[in-house]
Write a structure and sequence with these properties.
This protein is an alpha/beta fold and about 270 residues long. About 35% of the residues lie in helices and about 20% in strands. Strands 5-4-1-6-8-7-9 form a seven-stranded mixed β-sheet, sandwiched between helices. The longest helix has 14 residues, at about 195-210. The mean pLDDT is about 95.
């Protein structure tokens, strides 16, 4: 099985333009995320990690940042993230991929490994996703066969918001969830995804405390730090309602079910 990783990123953003290249501890945000992805024991070559960006000129500056790290870049559809993923997976001949989001620089390496371990253990599965972790920590692993099922059925081409629902909420793919290994990986209120200036401030505070060059700090260390410093969690707490409101407004996905009917997913 040829395994890779796909990470969707584009620099255009209404709320925080260019966020993937914002600096934390003297490095761009995307490099901190790549640290975590390449630390997976399923990744044996940096080039297996593919940042899936767009053909827009605004994303040109992303390319040297990724290639300078040693990872791969695939440029594809601007709005159709499903097509961008499918084309990248085909271009690299991957049989299965780890998927982490470009907005989530603290994506958990531990659950990249756990989801891919489970996917490889059961050939009937199309996708395994982590659940029950703080927002911005969960990752997924899915097969090319699962990708093919989604490509055949999806109809909404503007699918950046909620794209993973095609895999997990349609019945198109055989899906399994895995939960936290224990309470040391659980935090009920932390919001660890990068959308606003206050999110960037929170990430800077976390990395300034825990980051050490050449070492990826664990999810256990992160959760313990947040429990010990509730003021860090409070930095971006006030934008949570706005975040979920915007997500609900933008989520509108259509696909063709097994009975041939057109079905719509909304939040």
């Amino acid at each position: 099985m040829r395994i890779g990783a796909v990470i969707p990123i584009r620099l255009a953003s209404e709320r925080l333009p260019g966020k993937a290249l914002k600096e934390i501890c003297g490095r761009p945000v995307i490099h901190h995320l790549l640290d975590r992805v390449v630390a997976s024991r399923h990744i044996t070559d940096l080039r297996q990690v593919v940042v899936c960006t767009t053909t827009e000129a605004s994303d040109d500056v992303l390319v040297p940042a990724i290639e300078g790290y040693g990872c791969s870049v695939f440029r594809g559809s601007v709005d159709d993230l499903i097509r961008r993923f499918a084309d990248a997976i085909a271009a690299h001949s991957f049989d299965a991929v780890i998927q982490a989001d470009g907005d989530d620089p603290l994506s958990a390496t531990e659950y990249m490994d756990r989801t891919m371990d489970r996917l490889r253990a059961d050939p009937t599965l199309d996708i395994v996703s982590a659940t029950g972790l703080p927002l911005g920590i969960n990752t997924k692993s899915f097969t090319r066969a699962g990708m093919d099922k989604v490509i055949a059925a999806y109809r909404t081409q503007n699918n950046d918001t909620g794209f993973m629902h095609f895999f997990t909420k349609t019945g198109l793919c055989k899906h399994e969830e895995i939960g936290p290994v224990g309470p040391e990986h659980v935090h009920d209120t932390a919001r660890l995804t990068l959308d606003y200036d206050v999110d960037l401030e929170m990430f800077r505070r976390i990395f300034e405390a825990l980051y050490r060059p050449g070492k990826v700090f664990s999810l256990t260390e992160l959760v313990q730090f947040l429990n010990d410093h509730p003021e860090i969690v409070d930095i971006n707490r006030h934008v949570s309602a706005e975040y979920w409101r915007r997500t609900a407004e933008k989520l509108h996905l259509e696909y063709v079910a097994s009975d041939g009917k057109l079905v719509t997913i909304t939040h």
